[in-house]
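Researcher: Good morning. I'm working through a list of sequences from a screen, and I'd like to move beyond sequence-only analysis. For each chain I'm collecting a predicted structure so we can compare shapes side by side. This is the next one on the list. No need for commentary yet; just the structure.
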Amino acid sequence: MEDEAFSNISGKPISLACQNHSSFCREFTVSSPKMSIGKVMVYTCSVWLLAYAMFFFTQNTAVLSSAILITLAGMMLHIHFVKVDHETLLVIGSLGIQVSSSYASGREVTTFIEMSRIKDIVINEAVYLHQIIYYLCVLLKEPSEPNGVSSVVTLFQSSKPRLNCLVKVYKSCQEILSTCQ
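Model: Good morning. Structure tokens for this chain:
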């Protein structure tokens, strides 16, 4: 298993782990850094200090109680629905592609795409705010038209790796796809 350090489009460090299960099966895992406890403490203290200032002027204890509940609920929602620990792409030559996202809370979302539905895997570009970013995506075949594309499935949506990381994954995926088609 190879483990290389890369960065995402924001410049934050991410790691790419490549695992060869066989010549027709490879797994790529892009991992983001764990949630910073310091950052969580700063947000929590800021909200609670603001609530305490409001309590000082209003003398209403509901302000403090609601600030605590809102902070706790916000952290739980962020951990369960937003913060992705790692994303995995499993390419199995004759079968298809499995895309998984693992969240900080332990929740996992997995999608499988059959090889018969896959037209190609490409690196695409998009304008994002004031910069051009690259992303890896799977082009799905149009059932009625063999040369058409019905939809696009974006890979590594949360980690957003830079081009050098995407090229490594792309080349490896193309090796597998070329032997199967």
